[in-house]
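Aim 2 progress update. The chain analyzed this quarter is reproduced below.
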Amino acid sequence: MVTIPGVMSSCRGNAVHDHGEEGHAHSEESMKESSHNDEGGHEGSIHMEPEDAERYGVSAKEVYAGNFRDAVKTAAEVLPAASDISTASAPSSGMVVLADGITPGALVKAGQTVARIKSDGISGGDVNAAARVEIENARRELDRVKPLLEEGLVTKKEYNDALAAYDAAKAAYSPKAASGAVRAPRSGVVTSIPAGEGAFVNTGDPVAVISGSGRLTLRALLPSRHASMLPSLSGVVITPHGSEGEAVDLSGFGGKLLSSSSATSSETPGYIAVYYTFDNSAPVVAGSAAEVYLQGTVRQGVISVPVKALAEQLGEKFVYVKTGAHEYEKRHVVTGASNGTEVEILSGLHEGDPVVVEGMSFIRLAEQSTAVPEGHSHNH
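Predicted structure tokens:
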């Protein structure tokens, strides 16, 4: 049994309860008379003192018919803006050894080492190590012929050949490659690591992709049967896959429709690509998949409640309505369309009904606490 101080289910059945000097008995018949069987009815009231409701953050909001924005639910992916992407490339061939903490989603600074390229033991040897040997050989040859030129024992051409060999060896050697460090070309977020730990890369291969702190782009796939809503597209509500949080309305993050086409593409037959850009401050990770609601036309005179106000049990939908200063009831409702943040209510609620929109979990816990000690007292 779940116990919450000051919160309990109402008296039910034939149990008799003592309420101090003004003791009274509740019979099953009187319980039925006190129930409000509105649009599907309820099994009884749920009791919660006002101070406890405030403590647990339980609040109700009266619902009224108003504007409701229809939406189409579909799949999407979050992409960094093309101008906001940089790649950290391998300075030499070898095996990738990622730096500590470098994973998708990690924040990095410009010039920070994100990985090192290890060439030891790689077939073909370390090319840059060979270049260092060539430099040393060329330098020794130059040092040998220089005094001989002054003494006239070698020709000017022989000296120039030794000097050219030394310059060529230096040009073939890369201090950056010698260090093996793969550095971030800009500050931002690591969105992907094409070459994972231990992978072999060639010189110039991408090791990490970094997105700046600018904007992200959403690519949503609208089923072609909904093509008629393209002119009215106005917003996007997104729920990242695997997220346990609430849906995010991107209009609050500078969301803006970029483009859409009335024709399907060869890559996604039967779907129309819709592109939407928004600030990178939104709680969404670039490179992730998501479910989105593409919002379109507005209907008037619709009663709706927030998605978080709905409870589901055995396939049925319910809300909790505040019926008095201390009482709440579970109300069955029939739902219609959803736009990601609001759900249309077709029946079960009337204008002015105060529906619980915050702290619903505590109301549900109180509803489940059905065991009430015999002879308990209430202070009204």
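Confidence is low (pLDDT under 50) at residues 5-42, 370-380. Helices lie at 28-34, 50-55, 127-150, 156-172, 175-179, 360-368. These observations will guide the mutagenesis experiments scheduled for the next reporting period.
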